[in-house]
Amino acid sequence: MSYFDAASAAPLHPVARQALLASLDEGWADPSRLYREGRRARMLLDAAREAAAEAVGCRADEVVFTASGTRAVHTGVAGALAGRRRAGRHLVVSAVEHSSVLHAGEAHAREGGTVTEVPVDRTGAVDPGAFGAALRDGTALACLQSANHEVGTEQPVARVAEVCRAAGVPLLVDAAQSLAWGPVDGEWSLLTGSAHKWGGPAGVGLLVVRKGVRFAVAGPADEREAGRAAGFENIPAIVAAVASLRAVRAEAAREAARLRELTDRLRARLPELVPDVEVVGDPVRRLPGIVTFSCLYVDGETLLHELDRAGFSVSSGSSCTSSTLTPSHVLRAMGVLSEGNVRVSLPFGAAEADVERFLEVLPGAVAGVRAKLGAPAPATVTEGDALVVDAVGKLCPVPVIELAKVIGDVPVGGTVRVLADDEAARLDIPAWCAMREQEYVGEEPAEKGTAYVVRRIR
Amino acid sequence: MSYFDAASAAPLHPVARQALLASLDEGWADPSRLYREGRRARMLLDAAREAAAEAVGCRADEVVFTASGTRAVHTGVAGALAGRRRAGRHLVVSAVEHSSVLHAGEAHAREGGTVTEVPVDRTGAVDPGAFGAALRDGTALACLQSANHEVGTEQPVARVAEVCRAAGVPLLVDAAQSLAWGPVDGEWSLLTGSAHKWGGPAGVGLLVVRKGVRFAVAGPADEREAGRAAGFENIPAIVAAVASLRAVRAEAAREAARLRELTDRLRARLPELVPDVEVVGDPVRRLPGIVTFSCLYVDGETLLHELDRAGFSVSSGSSCTSSTLTPSHVLRAMGVLSEGNVRVSLPFGAAEADVERFLEVLPGAVAGVRAKLGAPAPATVTEGDALVVDAVGKLCPVPVIELAKVIGDVPVGGTVRVLADDEAARLDIPAWCAMREQEYVGEEPAEKGTAYVVRRIR
C-alpha cells in the first residue's frame, strides 16, 4: 500500500514511538502531585513544553497542550473572542479555513456574533489587502491558516499579521498543515497545531497564546494547563508529539526539497497523462507534499475505490466521498472543479517509485470510471430555441457528463439548459465551462431543481 | 517506591501497554476514510466501542469516547442540561462530587442556572430521601458519583436512580472510581469514566448517554463520535483503555477481596498505632482499595514529604497540599477533620509487604511532624472569664495544636476562644471537639479573623 493521505493523518514517526514507549513508564502519574512519580511526570511535561516552544518560536508559558488540534482551534477561537468581547463580536476568517475554524465561527454566530469570510483567488490564497478590508471597529479576532489542507496553497500569513497588528486585531494562525516544515513567520497572536499531522500520536494538539493577548476561557474551571485545557495531562503522548516534531524538523529542509520534486513531477505529468484534468492550488507557493487535482466526468468516490484497490490511499474533496453530500468548501471558494477530485498528500519518506506507480495507475483508473459512467444517452428535449438536459435526481458528475455529450448538438451562439438538483452542479458546470472555454450564462430556478444555462461559443 | 495513589492515576496495565503498542501500527489513520488504513482504524474503533459497551452494560451506540474523564463530565453535564433546557435550569449534585462535576455546576450557575448541593452524612454518603427532596419542577439533571474519590464511600446510586426516575429527572453517574470494579447498578441515564483510573492510558474518557435521554451538544459542530466529542479519535489509546478495562474486570472479584483485606487491616490498626487519628469514610460500603485518615496536630504537606522520603506516594485533602489553600470540599461536607489528612489508594496488585511497611513507617513519620510543630508555647490571654488563644496568621494545624495545649487550663464548664484566620480552622476545630468530646459552641467574627468558641465539658 502507498499511503498518500498525510494531510489527513501521518503514520507515527519512529521517534514518536520510541518516546511514547519510554514515557509510558515515567509519565503516567499526576504531574500536580508532590511525590516522586508526580515530580517525574512534571519534569517530562516541563521539558516537552520547552521543546515545543522552541520549535514554534515562543515562550514555554505560552504553550498549552490540548487533546487535539480541533480542540486547540475551538478553545483558541472561543477564548480569544471572549477575551476581546468588549472590543466587539466580529470574527474574520478566510473562506478556506479548516472546518474546525469555520465551525467555531458558526458557534460564535449562533451566540449572536458576526462572521466575515474573506474570499480567496483561484489558487486558494487570500489577498492581504482584502483581508485587511474585512477588519473593522468591533473585530475581535481574525483567523488565517498557514497553508491550506486541501490544496496545499500557502497563505500570506506574515503580511496579514502586519495588517491585523496595524488594526489592533489579534490573528490566530491554524498551522496544522505547516508546523512540520517550520515555524510560522510574522507577528501572529495565537497559533494552533495537531501532532498527528507531523507524525506524533493522536490526542495532542497545540495552542499557543502570546503574552499580552486577551484570553478568557469559557466553560467549567480546571486547573490543568493554566486553566486552558481541562482534563488530566496526557504526558506520554505529549512527549512523543514533541519528540516527533523535533525529528521531522531536523529532516524538514532535505525532505521538503525531495517531496517538492515529486509533487512538481505530479503537477507536470498529470495533465499529460489524464485528459480533462485540472490541477488546482498555487503551483509555487505551496506545501511540499500536496497535489490536488479534479477529473471531469468522474465520480470521486468510485475513483477512490479504484485507487484503493490499486494500493493507493488518497482523499477527495468531491461531494460523493463525504458524509455531508456537499462538495469541499475549499474547492467551492476557489471556484474550481470539484468532480473527480483527488488530494495526494505525501508523507515524510514517500518513495519515488510509489509516485511513479501512481502516475502509471491513475490514467487507467480514471478511464475506467469514465467508461462506467458514460453509458446512458442523455435525455434531451428542445424548449423554444434552447436544448434542455434533464439531470434531476442524478448525482455529480452525471450532469456535467450529459452536458458534455450534447454541447456538440448546440449551434454556436445557442444555449443549453442543464436541469440538476445535485448541489455539486452549481460548482462543476461553471468550472467545466471555464475548462472548455464555453460561456456560463448563469442559473435560474426551474420546476425541478435548478437550470444552469450554458452558451456554446466555439 | 510504593505507589499508593491509584485513585489519582493508576500505572499503565501491562495489557493496556500491549494493546497500545499493537494498535499504534493499525489505528493511526482517520477512521472516516474509505481506504484500507482508514477501514482498519474504523474496525479497531468499532470493536473497542462494543467491548466498552459490554463492560458498562449499555449499547455500543450509547458510548462516546472523549479525551479525558473531565471532558466526559463537562460534556455530559452541559449536554444533558442543554437537552432539558425546556424542563428547567436546575441542577442537583451531591456535595462530595469530583471537582469536574462541581465546576460544571459552577459554569451552569454563571450562565444563569441554579444548583443545589445535597449534603452527605459523616461517612460521605447521600441519603436517597434527601436527594429526592432536592428534585423539583424545573430540575433538568441530577449528578451522583458511584463512589467517592477521596474517602472511598459508595453512594446509593441504584436507589437514587429510582428516585430520579420517579421524578422524571435524568441521573448522571460519575463512575470514575468504580468502573474498574464492575458496572454501575440501577437505571441511570448518563455515565462517565476515565481510563487512567483503571490502568488505561491518559487521554481517554468515557461518556455514555442512554437512548432516549435528551442531549444537545454545545459549542462548535464536529462529526466525530456522533457529534459529542470533537477532535480526531485517539484510537490506539481507546483500544488500550478498553483492553485494560476488560483485563481489570477479569481480576476484579479476586483483587477486590484481597485489597479489602489490606484496607480493613489499615482501618483497624491505624488508630492503634497512631494517637489522635480519625479514619474517615464508610467502614463497609466503600471501594476496596481506599483508606483515608486524618491526624490531629499534623501538617498534611510535611507528612506527605516525610512519607515520600520513606518511599510512599500518597495524597492528601489537607489545605496545605493543594494549590487552592482550602481544605478538601469532601472532608468539609462530611464534617470530619481535614488536618494531617492522608488518602491511601492501593493500585491493583499492591503488595501486602508494602502495606505492612507503611504501618511500620507511619507512626514515626506522624510523631516526627508533631514534634516539629509542637515547640512554640501558645500565646494566651484572659478576657473576662474566657481564655483566648491568638492563632491569627498561623496555618493549619497550629490553631488546633494551641487549642489542645490550653484546654487543660480551662475549668470544666469554662470556654476558650481560638482566634484564627486560616480557613481550615472552621472545619478542624469542630472536628477536634468531636474527637475530644468537648463542646463546640460556635464561631463569632473577631477583630482579627474569626473566634472559635470551645467549652470544656470533661
UniProtKB/TrEMBL annotation, chains A, B:
Q: Which UniProt keywords apply?
A: Aminotransferase, Coiled coil, Iron, Iron-sulfur, Metal-binding, Pyridoxal phosphate, Transferase
UPF0033 domain location is 389-413
Query: What are the GO MF terms of this UniProt record?
Result: cysteine desulfurase activity; iron-sulfur cluster binding; metal ion binding; transaminase activity
Cofactor dependency: pyridoxal 5'-phosphate
Please indicate which superkingdom the organism of origin belongs to. Answer: Bacteria
Q: Which reaction does it catalyse?
A: (sulfur carrier)-H + L-cysteine = (sulfur carrier)-SH + L-alanine
* Annotated transmembrane regions: none
| Record's signal peptide | none
Coiled-coil stretches noted in the UniProt entry, renumbered to this chain: 242-269
User: What InterPro entries does the entry give?
Assistant: Aminotrans_V_dom, Cysteine_dSase, PyrdxlP-dep_Trfase, PyrdxlP-dep_Trfase_major, PyrdxlP-dep_Trfase_small, TusA-like, TusA-like_sf
Q: State the family named in the UniProt similarity comment for this chain.
A: Belongs to the class-V pyridoxal-phosphate-dependent aminotransferase family. NifS/IscS subfamily.
What is the protein name given in its UniProt record? Aminotransferase
- From which organism does this entry originate? Streptomyces griseoviridis
